[in-house]
């Protein structure tokens, strides 16, 4: 192989690498005023439990019936869930977008009741199917080839559409009553993510924290609701956006 051939091959390879590095992948999605997509979500939910001042003595039991043992603690373990949704993105400028990402989220919550007697334990499952309506501002870094980082902040409104049959405890005895939540929830949320550009689409893994503005507890007079003052709902959400 001659020197001219080697030089020609080297220049061709260098030109090819440069062209690949500068290739604007992502289907030109960032240049469009509006674009759309879909998302898959993993959701981890828990309550911040705030108890009443005399929570240990709340509602020991109806007169004439055996009372419940003394309550020792109330806690909320993490409960997993998942969601499916859509993406509507409006381009504000080179480094900012407005995003509306409605989703259907299946995410139950748990409450653990421990008593001084080691044999007594009760776990309450609060069933939930939420329709989420998040609206957020996405602040993006400058694009580096086929990668960029971003931050997100905003608020969302959720409606719980779980069947009333699943929360109907009218005919149940007082020891089998259910903890209930409000149907409407207002949240604030913040997150971080990455935009990864492929040839025909953009993939964005995102990690987001959401916290309800107010308590979601529906107060009732039974052994599992009466000791509680407030339940603040917290979600950790990992999402994959395809746009």
Structure keywords:
Porin; 8% helix; 1 helix; elongated; single chain; mainly beta; 243 residues; three-stranded antiparallel sheet; nine-stranded antiparallel sheet
Q: What can be said about this structure in brief?
A:
By secondary structure, this protein is mostly beta strands. The chain has one helix spanning 3-22; strands at 34-51, 71-75, 79-93, 96-100, 103-106, 109-115, 121-126, 129-140, 147-160, 180-181, 184-197, 202-212, 217-218, 228-242. The strands form 3 sheets. Strands 1, 3, 4, 5, 8, 9, 11, 12 and 14 form a 9-stranded antiparallel beta sheet that branches. A 3-stranded antiparallel beta sheet has the order 2-6-7, with no helix packed on it. A two-stranded antiparallel sheet has the order 10-13.
Structure notes:
The protein has 243 residues and is mainly beta. It has a single domain (29-206, 216-242), classed as Porin. It has one helix and 14 strands. The protein has one helix at residues 3-22; strands at 34-51, 71-75, 79-93, 96-100, 103-106, 109-115, 121-126, 129-140, 147-160, 180-181, 184-197, 202-212, 217-218, 228-242. The longest helix has 20 residues, at 3-22. The relative contact order is 0.20.
Note the beta-strand portion. over 45%
Rounded to an integer, what's the Rg over CA atoms? 26 Å
Q: Pick out the low-confidence regions.
A: 9-22
Overall 3D shape: elongated
Per CATH, the class reads Mainly Beta
């Amino acid at each position: 192989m001659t020197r001219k051939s080697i030089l020609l091959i080297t220049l061709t390879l260098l030109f090819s690498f440069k062209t690949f590095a500068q290739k604007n992948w992502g289907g030109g999605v960032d240049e469009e005023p509006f674009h759309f997509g879909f998302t898959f979500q993993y959701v981890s939910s828990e309550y911040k439990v705030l108890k009443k001042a005399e929570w240990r003595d709340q509602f020991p039991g109806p007169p004439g019936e055996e009372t419940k043992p003394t309550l020792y603690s109330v806690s909320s373990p993490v409960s997993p869930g998942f969601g499916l949704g859509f993406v509507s993105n409006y381009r504000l400028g080179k480094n900012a977008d407005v995003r509306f990402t409605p989703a259907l989220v299946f995410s139950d919550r748990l409450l653990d009741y421990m008593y001084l007697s080691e044999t007594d334990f009760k776990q309450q499952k609060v069933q939930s199917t939420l329709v989420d309506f998040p609206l957020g501002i996405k602040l993006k870094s400058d694009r580096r080839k086929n990668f960029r980082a971003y931050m997100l902040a905003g608020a969302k409104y959720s409606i719980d559409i779980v069947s009333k049959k699943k929360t109907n405890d009218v005919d149940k005895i007082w020891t089998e009553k259910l903890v209930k939540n409000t149907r409407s929830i207002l949240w604030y949320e913040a997150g971080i993510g990455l935009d990864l550009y492929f040839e025909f689409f953009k993939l964005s893994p995102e990690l987001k924290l959401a916290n309800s503005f107010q308590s979601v507890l529906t107060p009732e007079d039974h052994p599992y609701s009466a000791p509680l003052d407030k339940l603040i709902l917290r979600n950790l959400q990992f999402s994959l956006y395809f746009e």
